Amino acid sequence: MTGWRSTGFEELYELGSGAQGRIVLARRAGTGEMVAIKYLAPELLRDPRHKAMFRDEVNMLVRVADPHVARLYEYVEAPEGATIVMEAVNGVPLREVLRHGPMAPEAALVVLKGSLLGLAAAHAVRVVHRDYKPANVLVERDGNSKLIDFGIAGLSGEETVAGTPAYMAPEQWHGAPVSPAADVYSATCVFFECVTGGPPYASGDTTTLRRMHEAAPIPAQGVPEALRPLVAHGMAKNPAHRPPGAHQFVTLLERLAGSAYGPDWERRGRIALGAATAMLAAAFPAAALGMTTGATGLAHGAAGRSARKASSGRRPG
């Protein structure tokens, strides 16, 4: 490893690096707690406005104490640079789980419920994720899921074009004020993929994907009949017709899941998820150690928002 080191930690080894900086696995001195430390690239810190945005956003997300969100612990500035310290998650990306095919409905419902609870915790401090997708969910061995990577997160009411096309809510495509309902839409798209094996709309052309999200019928018939109201409600084209927030959507989910799959649906779903994760964990040691982190994306998000305001919007990608 090169460069300066944040004090108070024993760094074990580097997990990854890129244009936004490098991330290391470390042990906190005194407690032995394992953490992921993101060293932000100097280029991201040259503008004082960027530093101010990092501070503001981290200060908000540090208050999100929820078992379904990878915790951000602290943002540290020094003359040599800046770091973000966060939880090292022992889990496998949902994206990798889905490579092995669709899930049983109970397992997919567990993923959706955990994700919604994590999103609700972020929404409580006015943060909208805006890029919920399978790559940004880690599934732990007990079946719990954690939301990561707030790379293009924004405050409720911001107007920018941002997201991943396969999961973007209709209003995100034209830069309407973002709200928690956009995260609900994205989470429902991922739930659809968990159950069916593919996203609700598929095209290699971004313009076609936009038209589908904005105007194509919701393909609810692709999911089990008992869960179609969940998909139809969560993917409503008009955000005013969706649940206004993640907590409200959880209430509908629990009612439909209990009615369709019995009172122990969640226990069975967790068992299935845990088994799938245990088989994959050995194949993805970097993910298990927290290489993909909210801290990594958070740094990009603050700098990116400043650039988008200056250039009228980042295109989805």
UniProtKB/TrEMBL annotation:
Keyword terms: Kinase, Transferase
InterPro entries: Kinase-like_dom_sf, Prot_kinase_dom, Ser/Thr_kinase_AS, Ser_Thr_kinase
Compositional bias of kind Basic residues: 306-317
Domain Protein kinase per the UniProt entry, residue ranges: 9-256
One family name in Pfam for this protein: Pkinase
GO molecular function, one term: ATP binding
Region named Disordered: 298-317
Kinase among keywords: yes
GO cellular component: cytoplasm
Classification via PANTHER family: MITOGEN-ACTIVATED KINASE KINASE KINASE
Name of the featured protein: Serine/threonine-protein kinase
Taxonomic source organism: Actinoallomurus bryophytorum
